[in-house]
Specification:
The protein is of the alpha/beta class and about 230 residues long. It has one domain: Spore Coat Polysaccharide Biosynthesis Protein SpsA, Chain A (Alpha-Beta Complex), CATH 3.90.550.10. It has an 8-stranded mixed sheet, with helices on both faces. A two-stranded antiparallel sheet has the order 2-3. Strands 8-16 form a two-stranded antiparallel sheet. The longest helix is centred in the C-terminal third of the chain and has 10 residues.
Protein backbone atom coordinates (compact mmCIF):
# COMPACT_ATOMS: atom_id res chain seq x y z
CA UNK A 1 0.00 0.00 0.00
CA UNK A 2 1.10 3.57 -0.65
CA UNK A 3 1.07 6.39 1.86
CA UNK A 4 1.07 10.06 0.88
CA UNK A 5 2.54 12.49 3.40
CA UNK A 6 1.76 16.16 2.84
CA UNK A 7 4.92 18.10 3.74
CA UNK A 8 5.05 21.01 1.30
CA UNK A 9 4.02 23.96 3.45
CA UNK A 10 6.23 26.82 4.63
CA UNK A 11 5.36 26.41 8.32
CA UNK A 12 4.77 30.12 8.86
CA UNK A 13 3.25 29.60 12.32
CA UNK A 14 6.54 27.98 13.36
CA UNK A 15 8.70 30.99 12.53
CA UNK A 16 11.54 31.64 13.30
CA UNK A 17 12.18 27.88 13.68
CA UNK A 18 11.28 27.32 10.02
CA UNK A 19 13.36 30.16 8.56
CA UNK A 20 16.01 27.68 7.48
CA UNK A 21 14.36 24.33 8.21
CA UNK A 22 11.15 22.88 6.73
CA UNK A 23 8.59 22.24 9.45
CA UNK A 24 8.52 18.42 8.99
CA UNK A 25 12.27 18.37 9.68
CA UNK A 26 12.04 20.09 13.07
CA UNK A 27 13.24 17.73 15.79
CA UNK A 28 11.27 15.84 18.41
CA UNK A 29 13.50 13.85 20.76
CA UNK A 30 16.37 14.25 18.31
CA UNK A 31 14.48 12.98 15.22
CA UNK A 32 12.61 14.97 12.54
CA UNK A 33 8.82 15.03 12.89
CA UNK A 34 8.63 13.39 9.47
CA UNK A 35 10.76 10.47 10.62
CA UNK A 36 8.32 9.85 13.46
CA UNK A 37 5.43 10.11 11.01
CA UNK A 38 6.94 7.48 8.71
CA UNK A 39 7.70 5.18 11.64
CA UNK A 40 4.01 5.22 12.67
CA UNK A 41 2.79 4.05 9.25
CA UNK A 42 1.16 0.60 9.08
CA UNK A 43 3.42 -2.32 8.13
CA UNK A 44 1.47 -2.83 4.89
CA UNK A 45 2.76 0.54 3.59
CA UNK A 46 5.70 -0.30 1.35
CA UNK A 47 5.94 2.98 -0.56
CA UNK A 48 5.86 6.51 0.84
CA UNK A 49 5.16 9.52 -1.36
CA UNK A 50 6.27 12.76 0.26
CA UNK A 51 4.79 15.93 -1.20
CA UNK A 52 7.39 18.68 -0.91
CA UNK A 53 8.02 22.30 -1.81
CA UNK A 54 9.60 24.54 0.85
CA UNK A 55 13.29 23.64 1.37
CA UNK A 56 12.55 20.30 -0.29
CA UNK A 57 16.22 19.31 -0.64
CA UNK A 58 16.59 18.96 3.12
CA UNK A 59 13.86 16.31 3.13
CA UNK A 60 15.21 14.52 0.05
CA UNK A 61 18.77 14.48 1.35
CA UNK A 62 17.72 13.04 4.70
CA UNK A 63 15.44 10.21 3.54
CA UNK A 64 16.83 9.43 0.09
CA UNK A 65 15.08 6.90 -2.14
CA UNK A 66 14.60 4.27 0.57
CA UNK A 67 14.09 4.58 4.31
CA UNK A 68 14.19 1.52 6.58
CA UNK A 69 12.87 -0.84 3.93
CA UNK A 70 10.31 1.50 2.43
CA UNK A 71 10.56 3.01 -1.01
CA UNK A 72 10.46 6.80 -0.92
CA UNK A 73 9.22 8.99 -3.77
CA UNK A 74 8.97 12.77 -3.88
CA UNK A 75 6.40 14.93 -5.64
CA UNK A 76 7.11 18.64 -5.87
CA UNK A 77 3.91 20.65 -5.40
CA UNK A 78 4.72 23.59 -7.65
CA UNK A 79 1.73 25.61 -6.51
CA UNK A 80 0.74 25.49 -2.84
CA UNK A 81 -2.94 25.18 -3.69
CA UNK A 82 -4.26 23.20 -0.74
CA UNK A 83 -4.61 19.56 0.22
CA UNK A 84 -6.75 18.78 -2.80
CA UNK A 85 -4.11 20.23 -5.09
CA UNK A 86 -1.45 18.22 -3.26
CA UNK A 87 -3.16 14.90 -4.01
CA UNK A 88 -3.67 15.84 -7.64
CA UNK A 89 0.06 16.59 -7.90
CA UNK A 90 0.80 12.89 -7.41
CA UNK A 91 -2.18 11.52 -9.35
CA UNK A 92 -0.04 9.79 -11.97
CA UNK A 93 1.88 7.60 -9.50
CA UNK A 94 -0.95 6.61 -7.16
CA UNK A 95 -2.36 3.11 -7.26
CA UNK A 96 -5.94 2.28 -6.39
CA UNK A 97 -6.02 2.65 -2.59
CA UNK A 98 -3.74 4.90 -0.54
CA UNK A 99 -3.34 6.50 2.86
CA UNK A 100 -3.00 10.30 3.14
CA UNK A 101 -1.77 12.08 6.26
CA UNK A 102 -0.49 15.48 7.31
CA UNK A 103 3.27 15.54 7.69
CA UNK A 104 3.28 17.46 10.97
CA UNK A 105 0.70 15.55 13.04
CA UNK A 106 1.28 12.52 15.27
CA UNK A 107 -1.08 9.54 14.93
CA UNK A 108 -1.16 6.14 16.64
CA UNK A 109 0.09 3.35 14.40
CA UNK A 110 -2.82 1.12 15.49
CA UNK A 111 -5.29 3.85 14.52
CA UNK A 112 -3.76 4.16 11.07
CA UNK A 113 -3.88 0.38 10.69
CA UNK A 114 -7.62 0.38 11.46
CA UNK A 115 -8.17 3.28 9.09
CA UNK A 116 -6.46 1.37 6.29
CA UNK A 117 -8.91 -1.52 6.60
CA UNK A 118 -11.57 0.73 5.10
CA UNK A 119 -11.91 1.45 1.39
CA UNK A 120 -12.74 5.13 1.94
CA UNK A 121 -12.38 6.74 5.36
CA UNK A 122 -11.37 9.78 7.37
CA UNK A 123 -10.08 10.03 10.93
CA UNK A 124 -11.83 12.24 13.48
CA UNK A 125 -10.99 13.59 16.92
CA UNK A 126 -13.33 15.13 19.51
CA UNK A 127 -12.25 18.73 20.11
CA UNK A 128 -13.30 21.24 22.76
CA UNK A 129 -14.01 24.07 20.31
CA UNK A 130 -15.35 22.83 16.95
CA UNK A 131 -15.61 26.42 15.64
CA UNK A 132 -11.90 26.24 14.82
CA UNK A 133 -12.22 23.11 12.70
CA UNK A 134 -14.09 21.37 9.94
CA UNK A 135 -16.40 18.83 11.58
CA UNK A 136 -17.95 15.69 10.15
CA UNK A 137 -21.68 15.36 9.70
CA UNK A 138 -22.50 11.64 9.74
CA UNK A 139 -25.40 9.23 9.43
CA UNK A 140 -26.39 6.82 12.23
CA UNK A 141 -23.87 4.25 10.95
CA UNK A 142 -20.92 6.62 11.14
CA UNK A 143 -20.69 7.29 7.42
CA UNK A 144 -19.84 10.75 6.14
CA UNK A 145 -22.64 13.00 4.93
CA UNK A 146 -20.87 16.35 4.79
CA UNK A 147 -18.13 18.53 6.30
CA UNK A 148 -19.20 21.68 8.11
CA UNK A 149 -16.47 24.31 8.30
CA UNK A 150 -16.04 26.15 11.61
CA UNK A 151 -19.59 25.58 12.90
CA UNK A 152 -21.04 27.87 15.55
CA UNK A 153 -23.08 25.04 17.09
CA UNK A 154 -21.09 22.91 19.52
CA UNK A 155 -23.19 19.74 19.56
CA UNK A 156 -20.92 18.00 17.03
CA UNK A 157 -17.27 18.02 18.10
CA UNK A 158 -15.79 15.34 15.82
CA UNK A 159 -13.23 17.28 13.82
CA UNK A 160 -11.31 16.42 10.69
CA UNK A 161 -7.63 15.90 11.62
CA UNK A 162 -5.93 15.19 8.30
CA UNK A 163 -5.77 11.40 7.95
CA UNK A 164 -7.64 9.66 5.14
CA UNK A 165 -7.89 6.51 3.06
CA UNK A 166 -8.74 7.27 -0.55
CA UNK A 167 -8.89 5.46 -3.86
CA UNK A 168 -8.59 6.61 -7.44
CA UNK A 169 -12.32 7.35 -7.63
CA UNK A 170 -11.36 10.59 -5.87
CA UNK A 171 -10.04 11.88 -9.19
CA UNK A 172 -13.47 11.54 -10.81
CA UNK A 173 -14.64 14.55 -8.80
CA UNK A 174 -13.82 18.19 -9.44
CA UNK A 175 -11.78 19.68 -6.61
CA UNK A 176 -13.73 21.87 -4.20
CA UNK A 177 -12.32 25.39 -3.92
CA UNK A 178 -12.11 26.51 -0.27
CA UNK A 179 -10.24 29.81 -0.73
CA UNK A 180 -9.18 31.88 -3.71
CA UNK A 181 -6.00 29.82 -4.05
CA UNK A 182 -6.73 26.53 -2.30
CA UNK A 183 -8.66 23.33 -2.99
CA UNK A 184 -9.74 21.04 -0.15
CA UNK A 185 -9.17 17.30 -0.01
CA UNK A 186 -11.85 16.56 2.66
CA UNK A 187 -14.42 18.80 0.97
CA UNK A 188 -13.85 16.94 -2.30
CA UNK A 189 -14.00 13.61 -0.48
CA UNK A 190 -17.41 14.62 0.89
CA UNK A 191 -18.70 14.84 -2.70
CA UNK A 192 -17.88 11.16 -3.13
CA UNK A 193 -20.74 10.27 -0.78
CA UNK A 194 -23.12 10.59 -3.73
CA UNK A 195 -21.95 7.12 -4.83
CA UNK A 196 -19.73 5.69 -2.09
CA UNK A 197 -19.72 5.14 1.66
CA UNK A 198 -16.99 7.08 3.45
CA UNK A 199 -16.40 5.83 6.98
CA UNK A 200 -15.59 8.34 9.74
CA UNK A 201 -13.17 6.75 12.20
CA UNK A 202 -13.01 8.45 15.64
CA UNK A 203 -9.76 8.26 17.58
CA UNK A 204 -8.71 9.29 21.07
CA UNK A 205 -5.10 9.89 20.00
CA UNK A 206 -3.93 12.86 17.96
CA UNK A 207 -1.23 15.44 18.51
CA UNK A 208 -0.92 18.29 15.99
CA UNK A 209 2.33 20.25 15.95
CA UNK A 210 1.19 23.66 14.80
CA UNK A 211 3.35 26.16 16.65
CA UNK A 212 6.54 26.36 18.77
CA UNK A 213 4.62 25.59 21.98
CA UNK A 214 3.26 22.39 20.43
CA UNK A 215 6.79 21.40 19.40
CA UNK A 216 7.98 21.88 22.97
CA UNK A 217 5.13 19.75 24.34
CA UNK A 218 5.76 17.09 21.70
CA UNK A 219 9.11 16.29 23.34
CA UNK A 220 7.18 14.52 26.11
CA UNK A 221 3.91 13.72 24.28
CA UNK A 222 5.78 11.59 21.73
CA UNK A 223 6.29 8.92 24.40
CA UNK A 224 2.54 8.20 24.28
CA UNK A 225 2.76 7.33 20.58
CA UNK A 226 5.79 5.05 20.56
Amino acid sequence: MQAVIMAAGEGTRMRPLTNKTPKPMLRVKGKPILEWTISFLPEKVDEVIIIVNYLADQIRNYFGEEWKGRKIKYVFQKELNGTGGAIHACKDILRNKFLVINGDDLFFKKDLEKLCREELAAMAFEVEDPSKFGVFKMDKDGNLLDIIEKPQEKDNKLANIGAYVLNRNFFDYALVRITEKEFGLPQTMAKMTDKYKVKVFPTAHWFPIGNPDDLARAQTEIEKFV
